[in-house]
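Fig. S4 source data, part A: sequence.
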Amino acid sequence: HPDAALVDREMTESDLYVCPVLLLGDAAEHAHDRLRSMIAERQPDYVTWDFESNVMTGYLSCFCPRCMEAFREHAGLGADVALDPETIERDHMEAWTEFMTLRMARVGAMLKEACHTAQPPVLMQIYSGYQSPETKWRYGVDWAKISELESCDIASCGYGRNWERVSATHEALGDIPLIVGKL
């Protein structure tokens, strides 16, 4: 389905990834069915989504017309504002990061729903970096948005960090349990 392809920063259509607007819309049921099928086949106790995907180059970073329109609406930008990867990074990076971390949390919520409705139902875990401004743009994750949308049952972060980052992550997650690790 080339018309459904993600368009990357270089404006190349992906052979692997679907446009996130479609993933969260028309293709959502297909994604649910695929994940449910994998759960039924493999019988895991839980599913972990390890998400560390830069907001400009990751596999949810799409610059197709659908995504540009969704971003324009999210950021409150007029139709006269030029949008492409370069102008977004130069002029709208804060709004783009907000948009992308919200997109990630929405995909997480969709995956969690598929996990909970699978046979057998399983828990959904998201793994990424600790809450910080850097984690938002470098890894595309804002744990506060994940908490707000209840995008997972369990959150986890590794490598160990200073107490301030661990505490900020725990606070951002609200009632979602946090597992931390250290190599």
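Fig. S4 source data, part B ends here. The beta strands are 5-7, 13-18, 46-50, 123-127, 154-157, 178-180.
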